Amino acid sequence: MATEMKDTFDNFFKQATETVQNTVNTSVRFTEEMSKFWTRPVGSNQSFEDARRKGEQFVTDVIGLLQKNTAEGQKLVDAQCRNGMELSRKTFETIATDDAADLRDKAMNLWTTSFDAARKSTEIGMNAGMQLIENWTSFVTRAFNATEVKKPTSAK
After folding, report:
1. Model confidence over 108-127: pLDDT tens digits?
2. Residue 57 needs a FRET pair 20 to 30 A away by CA distance; which of 13, 35, 39, 99 works?
3. Own/partner pairs, 68-75, CB within 8 angstroms, 24+ separation
4. Residue ranges of the chain with pLDDT lower than 50?
């Protein structure tokens, strides 16, 4: 009876120990995989120096992107203001003529000028929008292009 009881407790402690060991091993593997998952985009290279360099390049690219997009925004505002001033100038020139005989021609000229200005304004906005999207796309492609993990070269 004592031998059976000893074997039962030995098996119980052996199973309990194996269960705890498997739990710890699973936890270690889970932690390793999660660490790889979260550090791979930044530290996909072999050293922290590489990760630091990559981080610096990312920040430099962000600053460059902001500068490009700010310059593009300034060009957009400048072009829209020039377009609006040109429309105002042409409108006042059209209205300012004293000759009332050609009222129909004046109205047509005013409508044509307005539609041309609206078309030009739309083109300016579309071109600026396309440039901003191109800047962002270029940045995202360059900055988030995950590099492959370098495998250590074996010495031969």
Report:
1. 888 888 899 999 999 999 99
2. 35
3. 68/135, 69/132, 69/135, 69/136, 72/128, 72/131, 72/132, 72/135, 73/128, 73/132, 75/128
4. 146, 148-149, 156
